[in-house]
Protein backbone atom coordinates (compact mmCIF):
# COMPACT_ATOMS: atom_id res chain seq x y z
CA UNK A 1 0.00 0.00 0.00
CA UNK A 2 2.76 2.36 0.85
CA UNK A 3 4.51 1.57 -2.44
CA UNK A 4 1.35 2.29 -4.44
CA UNK A 5 0.83 5.64 -2.78
CA UNK A 6 4.41 6.64 -3.62
CA UNK A 7 3.91 5.68 -7.27
CA UNK A 8 0.73 7.74 -7.66
CA UNK A 9 2.43 10.66 -5.93
CA UNK A 10 5.28 10.49 -8.42
CA UNK A 11 2.93 10.37 -11.41
CA UNK A 12 1.26 13.55 -10.27
CA UNK A 13 4.59 15.34 -10.10
CA UNK A 14 5.49 14.46 -13.79
CA UNK A 15 5.05 17.12 -16.48
CA UNK A 16 1.66 17.27 -18.25
CA UNK A 17 3.29 17.02 -21.66
CA UNK A 18 4.20 13.43 -21.07
CA UNK A 19 1.88 11.09 -22.84
CA UNK A 20 1.33 7.45 -22.67
CA UNK A 21 3.70 5.50 -24.83
CA UNK A 22 6.25 8.34 -25.14
CA UNK A 23 9.46 8.68 -23.16
CA UNK A 24 9.37 11.18 -20.37
CA UNK A 25 12.00 13.83 -20.64
CA UNK A 26 13.87 14.81 -17.59
CA UNK A 27 13.15 18.30 -16.38
CA UNK A 28 15.64 20.80 -17.79
CA UNK A 29 17.31 23.27 -15.52
CA UNK A 30 15.96 26.74 -15.74
CA UNK A 31 17.99 29.12 -17.99
CA UNK A 32 17.85 32.82 -18.41
CA UNK A 33 15.67 34.17 -21.33
CA UNK A 34 17.73 35.35 -24.39
CA UNK A 35 18.13 39.07 -24.75
CA UNK A 36 16.53 40.43 -28.04
CA UNK A 37 19.02 42.18 -30.33
CA UNK A 38 18.11 45.69 -31.54
CA UNK A 39 16.85 45.87 -35.24
CA UNK A 40 19.51 46.71 -37.80
CA UNK A 41 19.08 50.02 -39.64
CA UNK A 42 18.02 49.55 -43.33
CA UNK A 43 20.36 50.97 -46.00
CA UNK A 44 18.92 53.63 -48.26
CA UNK A 45 18.36 52.29 -51.86
CA UNK A 46 20.09 54.26 -54.64
CA UNK A 47 19.66 51.64 -57.57
CA UNK A 48 16.00 51.59 -58.69
CA UNK A 49 15.04 55.22 -58.40
CA UNK A 50 17.39 56.60 -61.10
CA UNK A 51 16.31 53.86 -63.53
CA UNK A 52 12.65 54.71 -63.04
CA UNK A 53 13.35 58.39 -63.53
CA UNK A 54 15.34 57.67 -66.68
CA UNK A 55 12.54 55.52 -68.10
CA UNK A 56 9.97 58.21 -67.36
CA UNK A 57 12.15 60.87 -68.96
CA UNK A 58 12.66 58.74 -72.05
CA UNK A 59 8.93 58.04 -72.29
CA UNK A 60 8.11 61.72 -71.97
CA UNK A 61 10.72 62.64 -74.56
CA UNK A 62 9.54 60.00 -77.01
CA UNK A 63 5.91 60.99 -76.47
CA UNK A 64 6.76 64.64 -76.98
CA UNK A 65 8.70 63.86 -80.15
CA UNK A 66 5.90 61.72 -81.53
CA UNK A 67 3.32 64.31 -80.60
CA UNK A 68 5.29 67.07 -82.27
CA UNK A 69 5.78 64.92 -85.36
CA UNK A 70 2.07 64.12 -85.50
CA UNK A 71 1.11 67.77 -85.06
CA UNK A 72 3.47 69.04 -87.73
CA UNK A 73 3.29 66.18 -90.26
CA UNK A 74 1.37 63.12 -89.16
CA UNK A 75 -2.09 64.64 -89.07
CA UNK A 76 -1.75 65.69 -92.70
CA UNK A 77 -0.68 62.26 -93.97
CA UNK A 78 -3.11 59.64 -95.30
CA UNK A 79 -1.53 56.19 -95.45
CA UNK A 80 -2.29 52.68 -96.61
CA UNK A 81 -0.26 49.51 -96.93
CA UNK A 82 -2.77 47.95 -99.35
CA UNK A 83 -0.85 49.17 -102.40
CA UNK A 84 1.04 47.44 -105.18
CA UNK A 85 3.17 48.36 -108.18
CA UNK A 86 1.35 47.89 -111.49
CA UNK A 87 2.16 48.27 -115.19
CA UNK A 88 0.28 48.10 -118.49
CA UNK A 89 1.55 44.64 -119.41
CA UNK A 90 1.30 43.68 -123.09
CA UNK A 91 0.46 40.06 -123.87
CA UNK A 92 2.20 39.02 -127.08
CA UNK A 93 0.17 36.54 -129.09
CA UNK A 94 0.05 35.05 -132.57
CA UNK A 95 -2.36 36.41 -135.18
CA UNK A 96 -1.90 33.54 -137.62
CA UNK A 97 -1.38 29.81 -137.29
CA UNK A 98 1.78 27.90 -138.05
CA UNK A 99 4.91 26.32 -136.65
CA UNK A 100 7.37 28.52 -134.81
CA UNK A 101 10.60 28.67 -136.83
CA UNK A 102 12.72 30.70 -134.38
CA UNK A 103 12.55 32.47 -131.02
CA UNK A 104 14.82 35.50 -130.65
CA UNK A 105 14.34 36.35 -126.95
CA UNK A 106 14.61 34.82 -123.50
CA UNK A 107 12.95 35.56 -120.21
CA UNK A 108 13.99 38.79 -118.45
CA UNK A 109 15.50 40.20 -121.65
CA UNK A 110 15.21 43.90 -122.42
CA UNK A 111 13.79 44.65 -125.87
CA UNK A 112 13.07 47.78 -127.85
CA UNK A 113 9.98 48.56 -129.90
CA UNK A 114 10.25 46.73 -133.22
CA UNK A 115 12.65 44.01 -132.03
CA UNK A 116 11.92 40.50 -133.29
CA UNK A 117 10.38 38.23 -130.66
CA UNK A 118 9.57 35.08 -132.66
CA UNK A 119 9.13 33.99 -136.28
CA UNK A 120 6.53 31.61 -137.70
CA UNK A 121 7.24 29.48 -140.77
CA UNK A 122 6.20 31.70 -143.70
CA UNK A 123 6.30 29.23 -146.64
CA UNK A 124 2.54 28.91 -147.03
CA UNK A 125 2.01 32.64 -146.66
CA UNK A 126 4.58 33.46 -149.34
CA UNK A 127 2.77 31.11 -151.76
CA UNK A 128 -0.56 32.71 -150.90
CA UNK A 129 0.92 36.14 -151.59
CA UNK A 130 2.32 35.03 -154.95
CA UNK A 131 -1.04 33.51 -155.95
CA UNK A 132 -2.83 36.75 -155.09
CA UNK A 133 -0.32 38.75 -157.11
CA UNK A 134 -0.75 36.44 -160.12
CA UNK A 135 -4.52 36.84 -160.05
CA UNK A 136 -4.17 40.57 -159.83
CA UNK A 137 -1.76 40.61 -162.79
CA UNK A 138 -4.16 38.48 -164.86
CA UNK A 139 -7.01 40.84 -164.13
CA UNK A 140 -4.86 43.80 -165.05
CA UNK A 141 -4.22 42.16 -168.44
CA UNK A 142 -7.96 41.63 -168.89
CA UNK A 143 -8.58 45.30 -168.16
CA UNK A 144 -5.95 46.28 -170.69
CA UNK A 145 -7.58 44.00 -173.30
CA UNK A 146 -10.98 45.57 -172.68
CA UNK A 147 -9.39 48.97 -173.05
CA UNK A 148 -8.11 48.02 -176.51
CA UNK A 149 -11.56 46.70 -177.40
CA UNK A 150 -13.07 50.02 -176.39
CA UNK A 151 -10.66 51.78 -178.69
CA UNK A 152 -11.68 49.42 -181.51
CA UNK A 153 -15.33 50.04 -180.74
CA UNK A 154 -14.83 53.79 -180.88
CA UNK A 155 -13.17 53.31 -184.28
CA UNK A 156 -16.22 51.32 -185.37
CA UNK A 157 -18.41 54.17 -184.24
CA UNK A 158 -16.38 56.60 -186.30
CA UNK A 159 -16.60 54.28 -189.32
CA UNK A 160 -20.35 53.95 -188.91
CA UNK A 161 -20.72 57.69 -188.64
CA UNK A 162 -18.74 58.07 -191.88
CA UNK A 163 -21.03 55.58 -193.54
CA UNK A 164 -23.98 57.64 -192.38
CA UNK A 165 -22.50 60.70 -194.03
CA UNK A 166 -21.88 58.72 -197.23
CA UNK A 167 -25.40 57.30 -197.18
CA UNK A 168 -26.87 60.75 -196.65
CA UNK A 169 -24.90 62.10 -199.58
CA UNK A 170 -26.11 59.23 -201.76
CA UNK A 171 -29.65 59.85 -200.55
CA UNK A 172 -29.41 63.51 -201.50
CA UNK A 173 -28.09 62.58 -204.97
CA UNK A 174 -30.87 60.01 -205.42
CA UNK A 175 -33.44 62.58 -204.32
CA UNK A 176 -32.13 65.08 -206.87
CA UNK A 177 -32.13 62.47 -209.62
CA UNK A 178 -35.67 61.51 -208.79
CA UNK A 179 -36.80 65.13 -208.87
CA UNK A 180 -35.15 65.61 -212.25
CA UNK A 181 -36.77 62.46 -213.61
CA UNK A 182 -40.14 63.75 -212.43
CA UNK A 183 -39.73 67.00 -214.37
CA UNK A 184 -38.67 65.15 -217.46
CA UNK A 185 -41.61 62.78 -217.13
CA UNK A 186 -44.02 65.73 -217.10
CA UNK A 187 -42.59 66.90 -220.45
CA UNK A 188 -42.46 63.38 -221.81
CA UNK A 189 -38.68 63.59 -222.21
CA UNK A 190 -38.03 60.38 -220.28
CA UNK A 191 -39.58 57.03 -219.95
CA UNK A 192 -41.65 55.88 -217.06
CA UNK A 193 -39.11 53.15 -216.33
CA UNK A 194 -36.41 55.74 -215.78
CA UNK A 195 -38.66 57.54 -213.32
CA UNK A 196 -39.34 54.37 -211.45
CA UNK A 197 -35.63 53.53 -211.30
CA UNK A 198 -34.85 56.96 -209.90
CA UNK A 199 -37.54 56.56 -207.28
CA UNK A 200 -36.16 53.14 -206.28
CA UNK A 201 -32.65 54.55 -206.05
CA UNK A 202 -33.93 57.34 -203.81
CA UNK A 203 -35.71 54.90 -201.49
CA UNK A 204 -32.64 52.66 -201.40
CA UNK A 205 -30.43 55.61 -200.47
CA UNK A 206 -32.77 56.62 -197.65
CA UNK A 207 -32.71 53.04 -196.35
CA UNK A 208 -28.93 53.06 -196.47
CA UNK A 209 -28.91 56.21 -194.33
CA UNK A 210 -31.08 54.55 -191.68
CA UNK A 211 -28.91 51.43 -191.80
CA UNK A 212 -25.77 53.52 -191.30
CA UNK A 213 -27.39 55.37 -188.41
CA UNK A 214 -28.34 52.05 -186.80
CA UNK A 215 -24.75 50.85 -187.23
CA UNK A 216 -23.55 53.97 -185.41
CA UNK A 217 -25.95 53.27 -182.53
CA UNK A 218 -24.80 49.63 -182.37
CA UNK A 219 -21.15 50.67 -182.36
CA UNK A 220 -21.79 53.20 -179.59
CA UNK A 221 -23.70 50.61 -177.54
CA UNK A 222 -20.81 48.18 -177.98
CA UNK A 223 -18.41 50.82 -176.67
CA UNK A 224 -20.65 51.38 -173.63
CA UNK A 225 -20.75 47.63 -172.96
CA UNK A 226 -17.00 47.44 -173.17
CA UNK A 227 -16.69 50.42 -170.80
CA UNK A 228 -18.98 48.68 -168.31
CA UNK A 229 -16.88 45.52 -168.61
CA UNK A 230 -13.76 47.54 -167.93
CA UNK A 231 -15.36 49.05 -164.81
CA UNK A 232 -16.31 45.57 -163.65
CA UNK A 233 -12.80 44.39 -164.33
CA UNK A 234 -11.29 47.30 -162.41
CA UNK A 235 -13.47 46.51 -159.40
CA UNK A 236 -12.47 42.87 -159.61
CA UNK A 237 -8.86 44.01 -159.80
CA UNK A 238 -9.44 46.06 -156.66
CA UNK A 239 -10.65 42.89 -154.92
CA UNK A 240 -7.53 41.09 -156.08
CA UNK A 241 -5.45 44.00 -154.80
CA UNK A 242 -7.15 43.65 -151.44
CA UNK A 243 -6.31 39.95 -151.50
CA UNK A 244 -2.69 40.88 -152.22
CA UNK A 245 -2.66 43.34 -149.32
CA UNK A 246 -4.15 40.73 -147.00
CA UNK A 247 -1.60 38.14 -148.09
CA UNK A 248 1.21 40.64 -147.47
CA UNK A 249 -0.27 41.45 -144.07
CA UNK A 250 -0.52 37.76 -143.17
CA UNK A 251 3.07 37.33 -144.25
CA UNK A 252 4.13 40.21 -142.01
CA UNK A 253 2.37 38.53 -139.08
CA UNK A 254 4.82 35.64 -139.31
CA UNK A 255 7.24 37.93 -137.50
CA UNK A 256 6.09 38.83 -133.98
CA UNK A 257 7.76 42.07 -132.92
CA UNK A 258 7.73 44.09 -129.71
CA UNK A 259 5.17 46.93 -129.86
CA UNK A 260 6.83 48.91 -127.02
CA UNK A 261 10.02 48.97 -124.99
CA UNK A 262 10.03 46.58 -122.06
CA UNK A 263 11.23 43.34 -120.52
CA UNK A 264 10.18 39.88 -121.70
CA UNK A 265 8.57 37.65 -119.09
CA UNK A 266 6.54 34.44 -118.87
CA UNK A 267 7.77 33.20 -122.26
CA UNK A 268 5.58 30.30 -123.37
CA UNK A 269 6.84 29.43 -126.87
CA UNK A 270 9.69 27.37 -128.25
CA UNK A 271 10.94 26.41 -131.70
CA UNK A 272 8.63 23.86 -133.34
CA UNK A 273 5.54 24.83 -131.35
CA UNK A 274 2.35 24.99 -133.41
CA UNK A 275 0.51 28.18 -132.53
CA UNK A 276 -3.05 29.24 -133.26
CA UNK A 277 -4.40 32.78 -133.61
CA UNK A 278 -4.58 34.31 -130.15
CA UNK A 279 -2.09 31.86 -128.61
CA UNK A 280 -0.07 33.51 -125.84
CA UNK A 281 3.63 33.69 -126.63
CA UNK A 282 5.08 35.94 -123.91
CA UNK A 283 4.40 38.98 -121.74
CA UNK A 284 6.06 42.35 -122.31
CA UNK A 285 6.39 44.49 -119.19
CA UNK A 286 7.07 48.20 -119.82
CA UNK A 287 9.04 49.08 -116.68
CA UNK A 288 9.43 52.69 -117.78
CA UNK A 289 5.68 53.33 -117.36
CA UNK A 290 4.98 51.66 -114.01
CA UNK A 291 2.56 53.14 -111.50
CA UNK A 292 1.14 52.34 -108.07
CA UNK A 293 -2.45 51.32 -107.35
CA UNK A 294 -3.21 52.16 -103.72
CA UNK A 295 -6.48 50.87 -102.22
CA UNK A 296 -7.60 53.49 -99.70
CA UNK A 297 -10.52 53.10 -97.33
CA UNK A 298 -13.63 55.01 -98.26
CA UNK A 299 -13.24 57.00 -95.03
CA UNK A 300 -9.89 58.33 -96.31
CA UNK A 301 -11.10 59.66 -99.66
CA UNK A 302 -12.36 63.02 -98.40
CA UNK A 303 -8.86 64.51 -98.22
CA UNK A 304 -7.44 62.88 -101.39
CA UNK A 305 -7.16 64.97 -104.54
CA UNK A 306 -5.25 64.59 -107.81
CA UNK A 307 -1.90 66.32 -107.78
CA UNK A 308 -1.04 65.65 -104.14
CA UNK A 309 2.51 64.56 -103.33
CA UNK A 310 2.90 60.90 -102.40
CA UNK A 311 5.75 59.18 -100.59
CA UNK A 312 6.10 55.56 -101.69
CA UNK A 313 8.05 53.06 -99.59
CA UNK A 314 8.80 49.80 -101.33
CA UNK A 315 9.06 46.72 -99.13
CA UNK A 316 11.86 45.40 -101.36
CA UNK A 317 13.88 48.61 -100.81
CA UNK A 318 13.09 49.76 -97.25
CA UNK A 319 15.66 52.55 -97.29
CA UNK A 320 14.27 54.24 -100.40
CA UNK A 321 11.73 57.07 -100.42
CA UNK A 322 10.13 57.44 -103.84
CA UNK A 323 8.10 60.58 -104.48
CA UNK A 324 5.07 60.46 -106.74
CA UNK A 325 1.79 62.21 -107.46
CA UNK A 326 -1.87 61.28 -107.12
CA UNK A 327 -3.02 60.90 -110.72
CA UNK A 328 -6.65 59.85 -110.41
CA UNK A 329 -9.26 58.15 -108.23
CA UNK A 330 -11.26 55.15 -109.44
CA UNK A 331 -14.91 55.85 -110.31
CA UNK A 332 -16.05 52.92 -108.15
CA UNK A 333 -14.83 50.69 -105.37
CA UNK A 334 -12.90 47.53 -106.09
CA UNK A 335 -15.84 45.34 -105.12
CA UNK A 336 -17.98 46.79 -107.92
CA UNK A 337 -15.50 45.64 -110.58
CA UNK A 338 -15.11 42.16 -109.12
CA UNK A 339 -16.37 39.06 -110.92
CA UNK A 340 -19.23 38.62 -108.43
CA UNK A 341 -20.16 42.03 -106.96
CA UNK A 342 -21.70 41.85 -103.49
CA UNK A 343 -25.47 42.17 -103.22
CA UNK A 344 -26.22 44.21 -100.12
CA UNK A 345 -29.99 44.28 -100.56
CA UNK A 346 -30.41 41.24 -98.32
CA UNK A 347 -31.60 40.65 -94.79
CA UNK A 348 -28.23 39.58 -93.37
CA UNK A 349 -26.41 42.84 -94.23
CA UNK A 350 -23.06 43.54 -92.56
CA UNK A 351 -21.42 46.88 -93.22
CA UNK A 352 -17.82 46.58 -94.39
CA UNK A 353 -15.51 49.50 -95.09
CA UNK A 354 -14.91 49.50 -98.85
CA UNK A 355 -11.66 50.34 -100.57
CA UNK A 356 -11.28 52.51 -103.65
CA UNK A 357 -8.24 52.25 -105.95
CA UNK A 358 -6.17 55.42 -106.33
CA UNK A 359 -3.54 55.61 -109.05
CA UNK A 360 -0.17 57.10 -108.13
CA UNK A 361 2.40 57.97 -110.78
CA UNK A 362 6.14 58.20 -110.25
CA UNK A 363 8.63 60.38 -112.10
CA UNK A 364 10.07 59.04 -115.38
CA UNK A 365 13.55 59.15 -113.87
CA UNK A 366 12.53 56.76 -111.10
CA UNK A 367 10.64 54.49 -113.51
CA UNK A 368 13.60 54.27 -115.88
CA UNK A 369 15.77 52.89 -113.07
CA UNK A 370 13.79 49.66 -113.29
CA UNK A 371 13.56 49.18 -109.53
CA UNK A 372 9.76 49.14 -109.41
CA UNK A 373 8.47 45.78 -110.61
CA UNK A 374 4.76 45.02 -111.04
CA UNK A 375 3.38 43.14 -108.07
CA UNK A 376 5.71 44.57 -105.42
CA UNK A 377 4.08 45.64 -102.15
CA UNK A 378 4.45 49.28 -101.16
CA UNK A 379 3.30 51.64 -98.43
CA UNK A 380 1.77 54.89 -99.67
CA UNK A 381 1.70 58.14 -97.66
CA UNK A 382 -0.24 61.02 -99.22
CA UNK A 383 0.60 64.54 -98.04
CA UNK A 384 -2.76 66.31 -98.09
CA UNK A 385 -1.15 69.73 -97.61
CA UNK A 386 0.29 69.75 -101.10
CA UNK A 387 -3.12 70.11 -102.77
CA UNK A 388 -3.77 73.37 -100.94
CA UNK A 389 -0.31 74.63 -101.90
CA UNK A 390 -0.86 73.74 -105.56
CA UNK A 391 -4.25 75.49 -105.57
CA UNK A 392 -2.69 78.54 -104.00
CA UNK A 393 0.07 78.57 -106.60
CA UNK A 394 -2.47 78.26 -109.39
CA UNK A 395 -4.49 81.17 -108.02
CA UNK A 396 -1.34 83.32 -107.84
CA UNK A 397 -0.52 82.51 -111.46
CA UNK A 398 -4.02 83.46 -112.51
From TrEMBL:
Residue spans crossing the bilayer: 51-71
Q: What are the Basic and acidic residues biased-composition ranges?
A: 1-19
Q: Which residues form a coiled coil?
A: 150-257
Q: Is Aminoacyl-tRNA synthetase there in the keyword field?
A: no
Q: Name a biological process GO annotation.
A: transmembrane transport
- Where would I find the Multidrug resistance protein MdtA-like barrel-sandwich hybrid domain in this sequence? 93-285
CusB-like beta-barrel domain location is 290-332
In this chain the Multidrug resistance protein MdtA-like alpha-helical hairpin domain maps to 158-223
* UniProt xrefs under InterPro entries: Beta-barrel_RND_2, MdtA-like_BSH, MdtA-like_HH, MFP
Query: Low complexity composition bias: which ranges?
Result: 23-35
Entry keyword Cell cycle: no
| Keywords from the UniProt entry | Coiled coil, Membrane, Transmembrane, Transmembrane helix
SUPFAM superfamilies hit by this protein: HlyD-like secretion proteins
Top-rank lineage group of the source organism: Bacteria
Residue ranges for the region (Disordered) are 1-44
Q: What is this protein called?
A: Multidrug resistance efflux pump
Source organism of this protein record: Microvirga lotononidis
Amino acid sequence: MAYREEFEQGAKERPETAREGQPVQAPQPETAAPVAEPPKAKKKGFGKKPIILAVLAAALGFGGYEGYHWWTDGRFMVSTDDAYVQADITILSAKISGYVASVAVTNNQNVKAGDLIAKIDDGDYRLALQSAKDKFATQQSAIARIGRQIEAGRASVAQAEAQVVSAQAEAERAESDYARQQQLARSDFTSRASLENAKAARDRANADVKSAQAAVAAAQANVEVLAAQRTEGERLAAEYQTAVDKAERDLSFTEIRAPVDGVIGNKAVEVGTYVQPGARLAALVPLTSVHVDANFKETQLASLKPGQTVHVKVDAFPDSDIVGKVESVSPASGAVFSLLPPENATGNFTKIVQRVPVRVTVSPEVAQQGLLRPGLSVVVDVDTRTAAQSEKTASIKE
